[in-house]
Amino acid sequence: MSLLDMDERLLDLASLIDLVYSPIMDVKEFPEGVDITLVEGAVANEDNARMLRLVRERTDVLVAFGDCAVAGNVTALRNPIANPLPVLQRSYGPDPSRMPGLHTPDAEVPPLVTKVENLRALVRVDYYLPGCPPSADLIFFVLSELVAGRTLNLQSRATLG
Amino acid sequence: MSVTTLTINGRLVSAAEGASILDVAREHDIHIPTLCHLDGLSEHGACRLCLVEVAGSSKLQAACMTKAVEGMVVTTDSERLRTYRRQIVELLLAERNHVCSVCVANRACELQDLAVSMGLHHVRYEPQAPQLAMDASHPRWIIDHNRCVLCTRCVRVCDEIEGAHTWDVMGRGRQTLVISDMNEPWGDSASCTSCGKCVRVCPTGALFEKGAVATNKDPHFVTYLRMAREQKLWNR
To answer: In chain A, which ranges are E strands?
Structure first.
């Protein structure tokens, strides 16, 4: 949502880009030949992993967007517990019938992975855009530089949390 | 008192006898990053962030533990040192569960500040995600081992300033843990005077006040106490 905090700067960006895929767009398949993809969130289930590999294959510049993608962050808080079952029991109670997807993972409810990973554990990441959430200024800086075809040095803009 | 003369980053500087490289550098406004060091406490040399290059030695030296010697030639900033310091911070972040966004010390944390000052936007090492406990048995404060960097400031302030020596360190390597008394719950400690000094010197969210977010850390009160006790100077 901090994307929206870019306010009217979104309009400047919109004239420079073609938005081809987003979780809230009605596009079934991630397209080929994408220039820049912002990937948010960590890899918490098997579908996340499949999707991430597909995105990497079809993207020129992959940006880990936010602390969960960069470092696991809140999503990875469950890692010390390792096995997802106690995590689900903690969240939904001990009754298995109240845990949809746990016993019959399918396409709609993918099984959780044992260990939540950040993006770089699975694929090559080109840029890390940290923050929880990243600031609108940082997002705008990164996007406008990348759209202009420039390479980035984010060291002076590092943040954690 | 005899004076020692040495070179730091090409600058000729003088030091009081017995001063450490860190002391001298600070006195001359030369910045060396530190974490376990705290003015007013004994040196511990645990964090290794203050590593410097000393001409004639291939080994890096911890500036806090190395005495300034006549004619010494010291470099406090180089590509090699920056690489190692960055690695140290990355290893500290990977070792335990440092999740800034849900930490009580977010934006009031020396580890976080160090990472930001080094331009660290991601950690290259695999997070170890150890299963570590919190001890909330004390009525006022909590120790969260997930955020502990084992700097031992709490141990030293409790021993050297308060004189209680409630805290100490148990185990080795990744099993190392700060413990109260004989590894008993903090709330049951017979030696703890509930002075709260450990909480104020802790550089991260490992020691914090119950119900407080972004605990107001204030490690510099240790120098104030020392000045007051030893020189009868009561200036804040």
So the answer is: 34-40, 43-45, 59-65, 112-117, 127-129
Contacts of B161 (CB under 8 A, 6+ apart): B40, B41, B197, B222, B225, B226
CATH of the domain at A48: 3.40.50.700
Question: How many angstroms from the chain centroid is the CA of residue B67?
Answer: 19
pLDDT at A103 > cutoff 60:
no
B132 and B36 part of one domain: no
**Which residue do the tokens 């360190």 mark?**
B169
Residue listed under structure tokens 């974490």: B35
Here the tokens at position A149 are: 């075809």
- A25-41 residue pLDDT tens: 899 899 999 999 999 99
Beta strands at B141-144 and B134-135: parallel, antiparallel or unpaired: antiparallel
Residues of A in contact with B121 (CB under 8 A): 70, 128-130, 154-155, 157-159
CB contact under 8 Å between B132 and A67, yes or no, is no
Average of per-residue pLDDT across A72-85: 88
Residues A73, B132: C-beta atoms closer than 8 Å: no
Spatial separation of the C-alpha atoms in residues A140 and A9, rounded to whole Å: 8
Give how many domains chain B has, as a whole number.
2
Indicate the pLDDT class of residue B59, thresholds 50, 70 and 90: very high
> B120 contacts in A (CB within 8 Å)?
158, 160
- Domain range enclosing B18: 3-77
Region of residue B101 (phi > 0: left; psi between -120 and 50: alpha; otherwise: beta): alpha
